Amino acid sequence: MPRFVIPLVIALVGLALFGHGALIHAKAIVAQVLLDRAFNQTIATGHPVKPWSWADTVPVARIVVKRLGVSTIALAGSSGQALAFGAGHVEGTAEPGEPGIAVYSAHRDTHFRFLRDVRIGDEIEMVRRDGRTFRYRADAAHVVRFDASGIDPAAGGPELVLSTCWPFDALTEGPERYVLHATLIAGE
Q1: 3-state class of 136 per DSSP?
Q2: What is the pLDDT of residues 139-179, one digit of tens each?
Q3: First and final CA of the chain: distance in angstroms?
Q4: b vs e for 160-173, b when ≥16 Cβ sit within 10 Å of the residue's Cβ?
Q5: Alpha carbons 30 and 23: distance in angstroms, whole number
Q6: pLDDT digits over 87-133, tens only?
Q7: Alpha carbon 40 to chain centroid distance?
Q8: Measured CA distances, 65 to 71, 114, 133 (Å)
């Protein structure tokens, strides 16, 4: 009997770890559906709509990279809770299309996984909660320490920064961030 216990325990632990990983990705997918619905209602009504009743944030933008077929909803704020469900608009930074730098952050293995495939010259479309659309062109990418990004949200503009953890394929947290910079090319 003891020789079956150890393999059974190992199998159960493996199943639990697999389930936890699958849950994280399932939550990201389901959340984007609810966030997309809330974002569309926000645009239609002109009032912020929570994606679910207990949400402590609201959708504020849609980030689209057409070449990659990517669209993701961004939330107000960049707290850990907001980033669990989508990209976050970093507090105190500009709105898309406004003077200054609009900064959005998300996890490298869910909502900003696509950043590894964005090329310099790609267009990034930002749709704000008021329905206005702004197009940016990716013009630079850097790897920086989390505490030394060099981003001054009040400088320049209107510009866009999308940031995530680096390296993309790491399994643990690290001090480096991938920062994609883009410049406004058109607004509606």
Answers
A1: strand
A2: 999 999 888 888 888 787 799 999 999 999 887 888 999 99
A3: 71
A4: bbbbbbbeeeeeee
A5: 10
A6: 999 999 999 999 999 999 998 988 899 999 999 999 999 999 999 99
A7: 18
A8: 7, 9, 13
Q: What radius of gyration do the chain's Cα atoms show?
A: 19
Q: Which residues sit opposite 61 in a β-bridge? A: 74, 128
> How many whole angstroms separate alpha carbon 1 and alpha carbon 154?
67
Contacts of residue 20, defined as CB under 8 A and 6 or more positions apart, other chains included, come to none
* pTM, rounded to two decimals: 0.84
Torsion of CA 165, 170, 173, 174, to 10 degrees: -70
Amino acid identity at 30: V
DSSP line for 68-126: GTEEEEEEES--HHHHTTSEEE-TTSPPTTSSSEEEEE--TTTTTGGGGG--TT-EEEE
What would the two tokens of residue 98 be? 């406004």
Give me the domains of the chain, ranges plus CATH numbers: 2-187 (2.40.260.10)
Among 95, 71, 90, 67, residue whose Cα is nearest residue 79: 90
- Comparing CA positions, the residue from 159, 162, 188, 157 lying closest to residue 177 is 162
